[in-house]
């Protein structure tokens, strides 16, 4: 479930990129790491970062349900909230802001 592709992505990242909710849940139930980060030249992104960046609210909900840290800061100082805001994904923003405590980090 956690096979790493040549671009540093795992199946869980692909599921979050394409909004494949059912696939994501199956991967997680089969042992995929909900906090696995990509490790390529484009930076380190968790599944939550990818789901937020591409506006996949269903994936964010599933990740939270299975205990993923939805406030994780990547190597660029970005949280999923930052990525959702930069892309104008209002539903993801609302979900992230209303999902309990959310710490806003400075990226100065």
Would you write up a description of this structure?
- The chain has 108 residues and is an all-alpha fold.
- The chain has one domain (11-97): Ankyrin repeat-containing domain (Serine Threonine Protein Phosphatase 5, Tetratricopeptide repeat, Alpha Horseshoe).
- It is 44% helix and 0% strand.
- Helix 1 (11-17) runs parallel beside helix 3 (47-53) and helix 3 runs antiparallel to helix 4 (57-65).
- The longest helix is centred in the N-terminal third of the chain and has 9 residues, at 21-29.
Give structural attributes.
108 residues, mainly alpha, Serine Threonine Protein Phosphatase 5, Tetratricopeptide repeat, 44% helix, globular
CATH architecture annotation name: Alpha Horseshoe
Please identify the top-level CATH class: Mainly Alpha
Write down the overall mean pLDDT: 89
SSE order, one letter for each helix or strand: HHHHHH
- Fraction in beta strands: under 5%
Number of strands: 0
> Stretches where pLDDT falls below 50 for ≥5 residues?
none
Shape category: globular
């Amino acid at each position: 479930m956690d096979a790493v592709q040549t671009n540093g992505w795992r199946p869980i990242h692909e599921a979050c990129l394409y909004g494949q909710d059912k696939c994501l849940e199956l991967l997680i139930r089969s042992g995929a790491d909900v906090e696995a980060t990509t490790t390529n030249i484009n930076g380190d992104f968790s599944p939550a970062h990818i789901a937020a960046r591409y506006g996949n609210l269903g994936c964010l909900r599933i990740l939270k349900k299975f205990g993923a840290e939805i406030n994780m800061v990547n190597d660029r100082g970005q949280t999923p909230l930052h990525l959702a805001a930069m892309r104008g994904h209002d539903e993801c923003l609302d979900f992230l802001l209303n999902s309990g405590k959310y710490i806003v980090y400075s990226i100065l």
